Amino acid sequence: VEGTLAHKLYNTEQVHERHRHKYEINNEYREMLQEKGMIISGVSPDGNVVEMVEIPDHPWFIACQFHPEYKSRPNRPHPLIVGFLEAALTYQGKRN
Q1: CA of 22: how far to CAs of 11, 50, 65, in Å?
Q2: What is the mean pLDDT of each run of 10 residues along the chain (96 residues)?
Q3: CATH number of the domain enclosing 40
Q4: What is the separation of C-alpha 40 from the centre of its chain, rounded to a whole number of angstroms?
Q5: Cα–Cα distance between 91 and 96 in angstroms, integer?
Q6: Longest CA pairwise span in the chain (Å)
Q7: Is there a contact between 66 and 19 (Cβ–Cβ < 8 Å)?
């Protein structure tokens, strides 16, 4: 979703990730979560499964239903892992 941290990190509108689970957000709570400020920043191609969520007022809160480590390589780290490490370094710099 444009304007989200996920969009900034991936720099694209559509991504393909690897899953290995049978868990998902109950869509009955989807509207309530959004009303409370959670951003749904990624969904399945059919739009029925929430794949990524964010909390915009948090320094770095992004949660995903997939495993970014499955596609991360030493010479090509996954965008979410890079984003997390950059946020950690920024946080550390503010504390020093």
Answers
A1: 28, 13, 9
A2: 94 89 91 97 94 94 94 95 95 88
A3: 3.40.50.880
A4: 9
A5: 9
A6: 45
A7: yes
- What residues are paired with 28 via a beta bridge? none
Show the domain range for 48.
5-95
- Give me the number of domains the chain comprises: 1
User: What is this structure's pTM?
Assistant: 0.86
Sheet containing strand 62-64, strands side by side: 39-43, 50-54, 62-64
Strand partners, 52: 42, 64
Residue 66: both structure tokens together:
């997939």
Long-range contacts of 35-41 (CB under 8 A, 24+ apart): 39/1, 39/4, 40/1, 41/1, 41/4, 41/5, 41/6, 41/7
